[in-house]
Automatic annotation (TrEMBL):
Name of the protein in its database record: Carbohydrate ABC transporter permease
InterPro entries, per the entry: MetI-like, MetI-like_sf
Lineage: Bacteria, Bacillati, Bacillota, Clostridia, Lachnospirales
Transmembrane segments: 39-65, 104-128, 135-156, 168-189, 210-232, 268-289
Organism: Fusicatenibacter saccharivorans
Subcellular location(s) of the protein: Cell membrane
One Pfam family named in its UniProt record: BPD_transp_1
Entry keywords, A to Z: Cell membrane, Membrane, Transmembrane, Transmembrane helix, Transport
């Protein structure tokens, strides 16, 4: 009888106060659930971040650690007596400032050179019409599959015959252009209509003026991505500078860091102190230009 009476009576009605309380309770439950999900996601990201950054953090820790604390049976992750002696000794043992200046000169020149040469080549492949353009572009892209080790001996013999060994020119010249840069700029230029170039030509605008006045202001993101990518690669060059330089006045910082490694037990802490100092510029460049790098890498992938 009670079931029949409930059915006849219909659904239960709620007052305005009860509905408001129910609404607040549901909102509070949803907020708690969202907060728990966000907390779990942040915690997981922190764990993954610490796992990925552990080698870098341990390197920094060892750089501030006396060599006596490193070579012990105890696993010392954090230095008990932090010191700057390793950094001071690294500066005294090798001309680190000279090596850093050389790397800045070489990396900056290569970056500027690749932006100029790659943008010019990409302009030709994008806007100019000449016979064999597609075949030539395919050949340029095919060079990306050739490892640098396959051409390093022939390049060395070439620059040696020209008398360019142990000079800044030999460090910069072989890297003044890249297939990757040409591809990146071409993909970006392809997003512009050909009518833009044709209109500029009708107005009497030359090719170089069109590149400088129109294309470059519109391709700042691609240029930023290219600059960051090229500078970091040039800063980290090791094999070519090691092969073509023989004096401290022309060596780059990567070669200088390897000079800190010796049979001395203290060399590990010295070398890691040097590593910490030389990765600061590249990490700073990446942090400052990461937005431009990501934007430039993806901006030319979608037309419209």
């Amino acid at each position: 009888m009670s079931t029949i009476a409930t059915t006849i009576a219909g659904p239960k009605t709620y007052s305005a106060e009860e509905l408001q309380a129910l609404h607040l309770a549901m909102n509070a439950k949803a907020k708690r659930k969202k907060m728990l999900q966000k907390t779990a996601l942040v915690t997981m990201n922190l764990i993954v971040c610490l796992f990925m950054l552990f080698p870098l953090l341990y390197t920094i820790s060892v750089a501030f650690m006396p060599s006596g604390e490193l070579y012990t049976m105890a696993m010392n992750i954090v230095p008990k007596h932090p010191t700057l002696e390793n950094f001071v000794e690294a500066f005294h043992k090798i001309p680190l400032v000279r090596f850093v200046l050389n790397s800045f000169l070489v990396a900056g020149s290569i970056t500027l050179g690749q932006i100029v040469t790659c943008s010019l080549a990409a302009f030709a492949f994008s806007f100019l019409d000449f016979k064999g353009k597609n075949i030539l572009f395919m050949l340029v892209m095919a060079t990306m599959m050739v490892p640098g080790e396959a051409t390093i001996i022939s390049n060395y013999l070439t620059v040696g015959s020209l008398g360019l060994l142990d000079t800044y020119i030999v460090l910069i010249l072989p890297s003044l252009t890249s297939a990757m840069g040409i591809f990146l700029f071409r993909q970006f230029y392809m997003t512009f209509p050909v009518s833009l170039y044709e209109s500029a030509k009708l107005d009497g605008c030359g090719n170089l003026r069109f590149i400088v006045k129109i294309l470059m202001p519109l391709t700042k993101s691609a240029m930023g991505a290219m600059a960051v990518y090229t500078f970091i690669n040039a800063w980290n060059m090791y094999m070519w500078p090691l092969l073509v330089t023989g004096s401290d006045s022309k060596r780059t910082v990567q070669i200088g860091i390897s000079m800190l490694n010796s049979v001395d037990a203290q060399s590990i802490t010295l070398m890691l102190a040097g590593v910490v100092m030389i990765i600061i510029p590249s990490i700073s460049i990446f942090i400052v230009g990461q937005k431009a790098l990501i934007k430039g890498m993806f901006s030319g992938a979608v037309k419209g």
